[in-house]
Structure formats: C-alpha cells, structure tokens
Amino acid sequence: MRTNSFLGILWHTIFILTVFILIFPIIFALGTSFKPLQEVYNNVLNIIPIAPTFDNYIGLFERLPMIQITMNTFTIATVVTIMKMLISFLAAYAFVYFDFKGKKFIYFIFIASIFIPFTVTMIPNYLIMSSWGLADSIFGVILPQISDAIGILLINQTMRSIPFSLIESARIDNISHSRIMIDIILPLIRPQLMSTGIWFFVNSWNEFVWPSLMLKSVDSYTLPLALQMFISAEGGTDLSVAMAVSIVTMIIPLLLYLVFQKYIIGTFTASGIK
Amino acid sequence: MRTNSFLGILWHTIFILTVFILIFPIIFALGTSFKPLQEVYNNVLNIIPIAPTFDNYIGLFERLPMIQITMNTFTIATVVTIMKMLISFLAAYAFVYFDFKGKKFIYFIFIASIFIPFTVTMIPNYLIMSSWGLADSIFGVILPQISDAIGILLINQTMRSIPFSLIESARIDNISHSRIMIDIILPLIRPQLMSTGIWFFVNSWNEFVWPSLMLKSVDSYTLPLALQMFISAEGGTDLSVAMAVSIVTMIIPLLLYLVFQKYIIGTFTASGIK
Amino acid sequence: MKGIEFKNVKKAYGDTTIIENLNLKIHEGERLILLGPSGCGKSTMLRMIAGFEKITDGDLYMNANMVNEVPSGKRNVAMVFQNYALYPHMTAEENITYGLRRNKVNKQEIKRRLDSVVETLLLEPYLKRKPKDLSGGQRQRVALARAVVKESNFFLLDEPLSNLDAQLRVSARKELMNIHHTFKQTMVYVTHDQIEAMTFGERIALMNKGELQMLDTPENVYNRPVNIFTAKFIGSPPTNIMDMVYDNGKAIIGNQSFTFDTKWVKHIEASNATDFVFGIRPEHLQISKSPLENALKGKVKYVENQGDQYAVFIDMANSEVIAMSNSKDWNTDEVIFVQPMADHIHIFDKATTNSIGYPGV
Amino acid sequence: MKGIEFKNVKKAYGDTTIIENLNLKIHEGERLILLGPSGCGKSTMLRMIAGFEKITDGDLYMNANMVNEVPSGKRNVAMVFQNYALYPHMTAEENITYGLRRNKVNKQEIKRRLDSVVETLLLEPYLKRKPKDLSGGQRQRVALARAVVKESNFFLLDEPLSNLDAQLRVSARKELMNIHHTFKQTMVYVTHDQIEAMTFGERIALMNKGELQMLDTPENVYNRPVNIFTAKFIGSPPTNIMDMVYDNGKAIIGNQSFTFDTKWVKHIEASNATDFVFGIRPEHLQISKSPLENALKGKVKYVENQGDQYAVFIDMANSEVIAMSNSKDWNTDEVIFVQPMADHIHIFDKATTNSIGYPGV
Fold first, then answer.
1. Most buried of A261, B265, C41, C247 (most Cβ within 10 A)?
2. Alpha helices, DSSP H only, in B149-185?
3. Coiled coil where (chains A, B) (predicted)?
C-alpha cells in the first residue's frame, strides 16, 4: 500500500528515534568500558573515550572468575531454554491436536499462571530448592524457571497455523505422534521455535533476582550478579568496570544472534516482512 | 483427534504435575503469610498455619507506606503498558500495511534489539535519566521500559492474520488510516491486544532490577523493592512478612485477570482451544 | 460384505446432529460419489471412513470388519485432501514416499511404486521440487501420487479437483480414471460439483441435510430422480418445477393444460398421491414462435448465453421456466409455445416430494 | 472518453513483468469480463483500476482523467472482493453503511440507499447478523450490497461467485444483472469461469500471460476465436485442435482427408499462412456408426457422461478428439465416422496461432 508523504515522514521520524533509543545505550556502554575511571565522570555523555584503555577489562578478569561466571550463566540459560522448549512443544502439541477431558480448564490454569507475579512464587521456590539441597547450585536456579506457560502459549499459536490436514494425512498413513512431531511439526515451526528459544535464552541470561537469591558464592555467580557487584559496590559505583561487565554480558547473546540470524530472518520473512 | 490410552495417561500426568508446580507456591505463600514467625521455621512445608494471625499484614502496613508503594507500582505498570501498546500498535500497523524504504532493515534492528541483554543498556539509561533529573522518580523508571520491540513483534503477528482485503475495502471507500486502525483493526485484534497488555503489565509489575537502581526513597518504592527489603533485611530474612508482601503484590494482577478474564478466554477460544 | 457399509450410523457434535440414521453400502472396487450441497454431511461421512471422526451411534464396516474403534492408520485407507495437505518442507518425491518409508516398506518396493506412479502421472520433472514451486495442477498430482503409492483398498477423495481450473479438471479426471482402472480400489469421492459426479461416478449417493436422497447410477439420478430435491440438484440450469392439478388425463398448470399420454394417465391414476408437482428439464422443453401441439404458452423474460446453447427464461403459469435453445433470437415479452417432451416428464407427489415413478418402469 | 482506458500500461514487480504493454478501452456502462487462466494478469488489472497497484509504466484513464497517482479512495470505485472482505465485527447493516457513514453521507440518504439495496437483494432478515452467522450466499449478497450503496460509476468484481455453489451462482448472477440494469455502472468482472463470462458479459477481454488475446462479445469469442488459445480456452470440453496440411481443396489430417467447400477453399488460398491448424468444437462434430459424407474415421476410446449429453473421446489421426452425442451407446475400440460441420470450422495459421478468419465475414 502506498503511503502519503506526511504519514511517511511521521513514520520515519518515529522509527529513526526508536532505533536511536535502542542503539545508543550499546554504543555508550562500549565507549565507557574503555574509559579510565576519572574520564567516566568528567565526560559522561561523550561516547568516544579520549584515552582508551583496557584496564577495566584486565581488572575485571583479575578480580572475578569471569570465565567460570560466564560458563555458569551459559549453562543455566541453555538448560532452561532447552527444557522450556521441550515441555512447551509437547504441551502445545497436546493442546492443538488432542481432545481430552478438562483441556479447557487446564489451558485456563496455564494462561492464568502467566499473570502471577514471580515475586509470589519466589520464596516458596527458594524453600523447596533449599530443602532439596540445591541452594547455591545452578540446578537450583534452573528448576523453577522451567515451569513457564508463556512458551506453551507462543508455540501453540505457531502450531495452529499448520493445516490440520497435514497431521491427518500422516495419521492415515499410520505415522506415530512422535514421528509427526519430529518429521512434520518441528521442521515447519523451526524458525519460530528458534526465535522463541533465543528469547528464552536471553531472558534467562538477564535474570537477576532469582539467581541473586539462590547463589551466594562468587564461583557460582552469573553475569548479572557480577554486574551488580560493581554497581552497588560498598565503595560506590565503579562505572567503567560495570560497563566492561555489560559488554562481556553482551558477547554470547550477540554471537547467538549472529549464528542463528538466518533462522531469525527466516521467521520474519516467512511472516510477510519483505 | 483421538488419543490412545497410554499417551492419554502420559499427558494427564504431565499436566497435573505442571499445574501442581504452578499452583503450589501460591498456596504456600498464602499459608505462610498468616503464620507467626516461629511457626514459619518450625513448620516449613506444612501449608496450613496452626495458629493463623494477621500480625504480618498489620506489621507490614505499619512499617511501610504500602498504599503509596502499591500506587507507585500501579502507575508505573499502567503507563508503561499503555505507552508500549500504543507504540507497538502504530509501528506494527506501519510494518504490516505500508511499504517504505528501509522497512526490512529497520524491522531487523528492532528484532535484534530484543536479544540485547537489559543489563547492557541499564547503566547508560540510568545516566541519561539522572542527567534529565529523573532519578528517584517513577517517570525515570517508566521511560526506558517503553522502548521494547517485543510488542511490535507480537502485535505484528496478530495483525497479519487480518485479511488484507478488509483494509483495501476500507481504503477504496476513502477511509483514512487512523479510522481504519480504530474502526477495523483495533476491534479485531482486541483480545490479543488485551493479553499482550496484561502480560506487559505483569512484567512491569514484577520488575526489580531497574526500579532498584532508580528508586532510593521508600516513598517511591515499588512492591518488588518492598519485598526485597524483607528477604535481604540486614537482620536476616523475615519470611512471614515477605510472604504478606507477596500476597499484596499478587492482588492487583489477580483482580486484573478476573476483570479481563472474558477477553483472555476470548483470545484462546478464538485461537481454537475449545 | 467387502467394501464399506454404514449401518444405522449417527453422527452428532454435542447437541448438533449432522447425520441421523444412515444406511449405505459401498461396493468393493466401485467409484462412489458422495454428492450434495455444503453442510449435507458428505465430508463427515468421508472423515468417518478415514477414521478422523468418531461414530456417535451405529456401526461402520470396512471389508466386513467393524471399524468403529480402529484408528486411521490401521484402516488401510489412502486419501487425497481438498487442500492436498502436502508437507511444505518436503520435495514432491519425499512427500510421495514419506508414508512408505516410515512404515518400513523396503527400498526396492518404494522405488518400484514411485517409478510406476511417476510414469502414470508424468511427475518426473517435478520430483525434486517443493510444493511451493509447483502449480496447482502439479500439487494435485503429487497429492494423488502420494495416495496411489499406498496401494490401499480404499481410496478417499475430498473434493480433489475443487482448487483446479476448468481446463485442468478434465485432465485430472482422466488421470483419476486411469488410476482406478489400474488399481480397482474402492473409491469414495466427495464433491458438490454435479459434472464431476456424472462423469466420474459409477454410482452417486446424493445427500441432503444428513439424509441419503438417492443412490443410483448417474443415468438414473439424472433421468429418474426419486424426489424433487434430486431433480433440482442435478442438471444446470436445474429442472423446472411447477405445481399441477391432475384432471381427467390432463395437467392443469396455472390456467393452461397439458395432455398426458395413456401410459402416464394410467400411471398417475394408479398412484396414491393427491397433489402433484410437474417437473421437466430445460433441455426437454421445445420452444417455438409458432404453435406446437400440446404446448403451453409463456412469455420470454430474457436469454442467457451459455456458450454452445442459450438458456431462455420464460414467464409461464406464474413461475419462471427455463428452456434451452440453439437460437438466441428470442425477444423479451414475446409470447412463445413451450412443449414438454412426453418421454422426459417427472411427476412428484407434492406431500412427500417423492417421485411417483415412471410408467412402464 | 468516459469509461476506463489502459494506454500502454506496463506492470512489473521488480524484475518480474506481469503485463508488458496493455491497451484496452472499457466503455462507460458496459459489463466487461476479464477472463483468463490464473496468473494471466486479470486480477492485477482490476487492482490497478481500484488503485491498489501502482502502474509501472503507461497511463490509466477513468472518466477521461489520468488516475495513475489518484489514491483508491478518490476514484469513486466500488468493489466486491473474492473473499467478500466483510468486517467480521460488524453486522450486515453496519458493513453495508460503514463507508457511507464515515464519508459523512447524511442519514436520510444512507437510509434510502440501504432500504433500496436491502429490498433488491432481499437482505431484510440478515441485517442484524454478523458475517459468521451468514451463509456463503448471504455474505456474498451483503458484500454486493456494500458495493451497490456507494452508487459509484465503476463497479469492480473480483471472482465474486467463486465461493458459491452451482445453484447459488445462477441466482447471484441474476441479482448482479438486476443491479446493472438499475444503476448502469461500468462493471469490470474478473473470472476464470467461462460460463460466468458468457452469461454475464457484454464483452469479454480474454487474457493470457499478461497479453490481451481477444476483446469481443461472448458470441464472437465463442464462434469466431481469433487464435488457438481463445478457441481452446472457451468451451468445455475444449475445441479439438488438429494439425492439417492444405492440399488442393482438402485438409489432410493424419492420413485422412476432409474436403472444404468453395468458400473455405478461396479463403484458405487467399491467406498468407503456409502451415495450418484445424479446429472444431466437440458439439460441431457429428458422429455415426454408419458412413457419413466427407467424414473422417476414428476409434472410440471412452464415453463420459455429462448429464444431458455424452462426451465421446475418439482416437483420430494420432490425436484425441472429443465429440458430443445424445447417445451413450458407443463401444470402446469401435470405428466410427466423424463429420465436422462445415459452418463451424476454424482454421489457424500454425506459425502465429492466429485464426485466418472466416470466409465471407
């Protein structure tokens, strides 16, 4: 559809502003992470460091087991993502392709659970994990994150876009449900699955409150906890190091995005964005 | 589609377990919030309090301006939700119904931004808000939360399910785009819009890290910050009061859910769940 | 019996009954058409045979076995879906062989069946393409091929030609016919298109509102409709239907009359009906500007070009009657003579809407 | 001129050219059919008139004004979409009046137009219903009503009957005809269905691959096709096409010959073509078991029941020829005599595929 020129200019302005708001903080973080500490405060909104230095990064890796911390964060995010995807996929399949008693009610509970604040369930979960001996363990961080109905909702919506007759065609050919999932459903919704997965991963990667409750020793820390150390350090905020942590935090998601870019683009071209 | 009995039992087991995992913490929180402190530790996993008491709630409201805190949280969540919905709606409309130069590129940036950890943008945002004099203000909490491309993505997907010919039919009748949005698009995607909105609201309601960075005085606190006070209180964890905060935190989302239940159910019946 | 049999079958969704009580025998190896307007239950019947819909009451037999509880995959049924239901991520070849491969048919056998069907349906150039790179007709053939390679006893087709344009339908029908000649499956073919039904069916089961209206050969369905619904549903333009009063060897239609021959007089007088309906197909009305023997008079309303013939819409006895003509020279409001051909008259009992039958048959 | 005119119009999406160079005049107040197989560009043409597609090159005139840059809403065009495009959340009445209300037409005028269209299309009982509570035919009428109330000069229809079943199409066509008689809009009607084209069109523009094949009345398109494509596209079963060699007053077809009458002989000898193609419609082939004058011999392959007639598929001169017959008594492999009716022959130039015209025309 053609757009008239006034609307055209309006949209473009909104878009460029939004893109700027999205992009600016990243450039800022990158710049600051290479600034010496005094320049940070003297020269706050000037993005390019006057005297670039690697000191913040070197100091960071000396003070904290950053490799271990990155590994912890990665393990948690990966396991959470895989488990959530698996459960969501199976549950969504059941909701879309089966009729069973109480289906509506159970779906209703699932949806309702999306609207329950995490803060409500946090402490009971903490107590359960503690009683299972999982306090200060990354498995204690992982387990409660797995039960999240939003994945069921998202995958359910994608799955329903597959014509029912594809499944019927396979059923009449005596193909089992597990085979149908693997051979037909999975390939067809893979792009959407990828996006959802990456989104889960990033959410878990960013999670602060729950890991901060569970994890006490620096060796079991995740990246957001490390970041927090430099923001609310007792001696005040060590901004340039904090920015260095930010940049480290960003590396893996960025790599992930680049690796899976093809699928992510696929998702949005498949959904009609040319 | 009919399910054979083995699969049937399997699904039911998975579902009942999941529902239990989702529901149990809420019941636990409710029970604990009515327990005297000593009972909390002696009697951890017994849900029903032996000697129920309102003391936790009374103490809570005496120690903190809970009405003010709830209002803060509500204001933030409401404004964030409305702004995000509005921007997402307009942007999604532009992406779906207009062709403009750089459309693909801009969409790509938007999607990429979803995968950038919040921790990266947090401190730059903090500095910007501070320099605008919005530190310790709920507006400082609100502003950076508004730029979130996930809304565009979700609404974009829903909008594309509307046949293009509806828009063309209106265009040939000389209806303006703003009228089309209000008269046609909005009513048709209202249920999905509602769900997305509620989800945004609850996410903002739960947000801890960003408000904790911005808000310093107890009067400007949000509920998750209040909760945190009793979890990581210097004198150790005051679990029963924390649970009382949890329950208070849950009230508004629960009310919201009940009020908009009709629409939420609508969304999922419209999407084929019978 | 071999073949398929519906015995007192009922199908309801909750309180909505689609089919009340259906009895139907489909012979082994025949091409049976399930024909009817949308919502008549024909697709539901096909889906019950396929095992996609549970039977609410009654029994369904396939090859003499009661299959009410037999799952789809165990019924040895092949099906062509209306939307073809091709797997979008598989090539034509993968689509065709997928079921065989997963059911562990051995490789030589898969190759043999694939080669055979590819040859019959001329699919060679398209085997490596995905459905999105195929035209509508090519997709339809791939869907057909996928069903054929199963070499099942039962072959179900759900409006398989409805997404093809007119030219392609003719050749697709021919291909289907070839397939049936080769494999002699029991074919059940759902359509709402009477031309498809007439050309492809050995027998037609005409359905309406969940009830079987007529089950017979295309010739009989066309020439000897058992009730008004059948007479009107089959044929385009549809059979003309007029109320008539029988009076002493004559049909009084409006204020005109038509004299029956003796065979019809005997037949009508022998029937139990009291009120009658007169039916005649447009192609069995002769029209003329000059008087015709035993004809009714009517006024031309307008003429519709049908390509090889013209449909003349005539105002006659307070109803609209259509006659086919090779000429288009009929003027609006001109009074013409309309002569029903005596051998092609249909008489129905107005109360039951059933045909009173035909003299000497 | 009034009406619509395409002048050297080109339409391309990136590198894909849909229409190369189109010139077409649509007269004011006529019913023009855009007919052709899918992908021929007919829908693109309609969408260019509606203003949904930008014109890549050339000019489009409506009522003598160049409208290349005029937006949809300013073209005073009403349109009926293939999927009807009814607003699902509005009742039938709201759907019909929405455009008028938003364009601030006054209330009495809206009421007048609504009442009039509701009466014409018998929509009274459905006004308060939403689209999902209407049948396909009712939806189609609501969509029609919504377009009619605009009282536009231009009325575009994009396969408006394609979602209706055969019985409903006849009555929907009659309604459309009524509407045109009342409002005399310039109607542009896209379809791939030749029966619709023949019955509804005053002129037919037959398109193929973005090129206009023929623009003429239904009679001429049927009886005087200008090229092989037109001859084969119009008519079902399609026109029989056979290679022929002209030899001294005779057509040599395979190893048989057919003698032309003197008119044709003169005409063929006057043409520039060197190689010829012989065309004859199935209904213009007389067939017989006993010898016929000036006939070719062929072998019956099979017979297809078409309801009122039978299509006899004949193996003749190495190609398949179809003839229509009132009888079904033709045995497979039987040798029969096939006589083309001299008045209905079509001769094409093999090189250009164009008709060489008709003698004395």
1. C41
2. 150-159, 164-172, 177-180
3. none
